[in-house]
């Protein structure tokens, strides 16, 4: 069975047996051109052999292209699941063809994930596309001279149909043979009563994190990346006095794109109160224990460490179940989008010179905006108008 081993830091010479101290000393002097960071995933087969093409693929995307840690983790999980499936069925990865990929896809349709839940169509398609992307990369970089999963060799049709005259071949024709039909689902945002009940059931700092998502539409990863300097431009000990009813907060969006959100004054006041009380107390407890402190992270847990993504998502889900409805971090973001769009539509009907859909796309950090001109039109609306919209939203939002 294939397995993943995370790269660890090199041991110090004093930490190894005396016979190995000279080698450990020499290892610290080796300078690599593109060193892999600590925690980098290394894939091994069941007999302890490195799966070199998979590691080279991850190295290119994680080190050379500097993709985010979440992207690298996703790619590693896809390759691990694929190579583990091949190994259990005693199939060499070089000879895998369309039949194996279809069987792999269909297995996910009928079996549960390791978490005990059924695979979603989105997850299945994402993994299938990841496998095809890996084989296309392997052919381009010489790990394979050719592959049945690349090009037109993956045609599974029992009988070939005549091509339509004048129709250009699709670039994704090979992918379309394997991916399943996927239908977009309409967002089902929380009602105002559900949002209030959810926030009332959350404990600090998760209640404040949920408010940030409800009031700004940030993704969960973007909330976790927030620092004190991002919000207040200073330290936690002396947040500046707010002179406006809102504040533009610069954030790093998905894919390291720059963006911003508009935070209302009430949210910033709650955040300043959290900094001066709960967060300060947790970091002080950490200092008394003489442990390393992470002062940059805005949200910290009881141990003074940055809140983890999994823990935050679990708390939101469990609190929603206790309240009697489904709640996720993505639903918090969708609730903001629907509330904002509804209010902006009302302003547009009153002859306000705004495009509600484009404004919401910018505030949500969506990528599908055709040209820079559309961005300019979206953000050309007066920020005071948007601040007034947020204030009116909060008048009926959770307290």
Brief overview, please?
By secondary structure, the protein is mainly α. The chain has 16 helices and four strands. A hairpin with a 5-residue loop joins strand 3 and strand 4.
Keyword list:
two-stranded antiparallel ribbon; 50% helix; globular; 399 residues; hpI Integrase, Chain A; mainly alpha; two-stranded antiparallel sheet; 2 domains
Report on this structure.
The protein is mostly helical. The chain has two domains: 3-153, no CATH class; 192-395, hpI Integrase, Chain A (Orthogonal Bundle). Helix content is 50%, strand content 6%. The chain has 16 helices and four strands. A two-stranded antiparallel ribbon has the order 1-2. The protein has a two-stranded antiparallel sheet with strand order 3-4. Strand 3 and strand 4 form a beta hairpin. Helix 2 packs antiparallel against helix 3 and helix 7 packs across helix 12 (309-323). The longest helix is centred in the last third of the chain and has 24 residues, at 265-288. The chain is globular, with a radius of gyration of 25 Å.
- Strand element count: 4
- The oligomerization state is single chain
Question: Unreliable runs, pLDDT <50, ≥5 residues?
Answer: 153-173, 369-385
Fill in the CATH topology of the largest domain. Answer: hpI Integrase, Chain A
Q: What's the shape?
A: globular
Terminal-residue CA separation: 52 Å
CATH architecture of the largest domain: Orthogonal Bundle
Domain tally: 2
Mean pLDDT over all positions: 80
- What is the overall number of helices? 16
Structural class from helices and strands?
mainly alpha
Arrangement of strands in the largest sheet: 1-2
Please give the CATH class of the largest domain.
Mainly Alpha
Look at the structure and name the CATH superfamily of the largest domain.
Answer: Intergrase catalytic core
Helix content: 40-55%
- Radius of gyration (CA) equals 25 Å
Largest sheet: 2 strands, antiparallel
| Strand percent estimate | 5-15%
The sequence of SSEs as H and E is EHEHHHHHHHHHEEHHHHHH
């Amino acid at each position: 069975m294939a397995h993943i081993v995370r790269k660890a830091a090199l041991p110090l010479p004093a930490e190894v047996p005396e016979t190995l101290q000279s080698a450990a000393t020499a290892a610290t002097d080796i300078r690599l051109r593109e060193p892999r960071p600590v925690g980098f995933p290394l894939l091994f087969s069941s007999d302890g052999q490195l799966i070199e093409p998979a590691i080279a693929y991850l190295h290119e995307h994680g080190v050379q292209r500097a993709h985010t840690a979440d992207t690298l983790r996703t790619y590693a999980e896809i390759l691990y699941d694929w190579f583990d499936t091949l190994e259990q069925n005693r199939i060499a990865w070089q000879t895998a063809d369309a039949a194996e990929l279809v069987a792999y896809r269909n297995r996910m349709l009928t079996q549960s994930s390791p978490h005990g839940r059924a695979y979603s169509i989105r997850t299945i398609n994402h993994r299938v596309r990841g496998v095809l992307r890996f084989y296309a990369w392997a052919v381009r970089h010489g790990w394979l001279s050719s592959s049945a999963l690349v090009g037109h060799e993956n045609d599974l049709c029992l009988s070939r149909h005549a091509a339509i005259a004048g129709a250009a071949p699709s670039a994704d024709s090979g992918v379309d043979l394997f991916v399943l039909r996927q239908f977009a689902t309409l967002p089902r945002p929380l009602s105002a009563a559900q949002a209030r009940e959810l926030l009332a059931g959350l404990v600090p700092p998760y209640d404040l994190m949920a408010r940030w998502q409800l009031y700004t539409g940030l993704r969960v990863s973007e909330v976790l990346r927030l620092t004190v300097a991002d919000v207040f431009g200073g330290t936690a000990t002396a947040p500046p006095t707010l002179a406006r009813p809102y504040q533009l907060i610069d954030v790093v969006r998905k894919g390291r794109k720059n963006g911003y959100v508009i935070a209302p004054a009430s949210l910033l006041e709650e955040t300043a109160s959290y900094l001066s009380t709960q967060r300060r107390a947790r970091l002080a407890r950490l200092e008394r224990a003489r442990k390393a402190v992470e002062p940059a992270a805005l949200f910290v847990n009881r141990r003074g460490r940055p809140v983890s993504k999994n823990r935050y998502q679990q708390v939101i889900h469990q609190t929603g179940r206790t309240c009697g409805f489904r709640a996720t971090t993505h639903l918090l973001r969708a609730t903001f989008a629907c509330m904002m769009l509804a209010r902006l539509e009302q302003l547009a009907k009153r002859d306000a010179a705004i495009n509600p859909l484009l404004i919401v796309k910018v505030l949500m950090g969506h990528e599908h905006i055709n040209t820079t001109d559309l961005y300019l039109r979206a953000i050309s609306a007066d920020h005071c108008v948007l601040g007034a919209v947020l204030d009116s939203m909060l008048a009926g939002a959770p307290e």
